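1st attempt posting a full record on here, be nice pls
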Amino acid sequence: MTIEYQVRLDRDACDGIFACLVRDDRFTEASDGLATIDTDGSANGDDELTARFADDRIEDARQAARACPVGAIDVTAVDNE
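the predicted structure (as tokens):
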């Protein structure tokens, strides 16, 4: 099922543990040693990234968020109404 959702990554809270990387391959290690995510150009400053997706991979993103020990990732379904 395709759903639209938003993934927010608070890079200021990230400790570079990378539990997210093994659960969702859209998360990668940035050159500064912290996690980053493909944002399609959407960013809210250097320390917070927001990416919006419309695909069937919301569960991957949710697993990445649950695995983050510092709670730096939020996944929110987007209501298009």
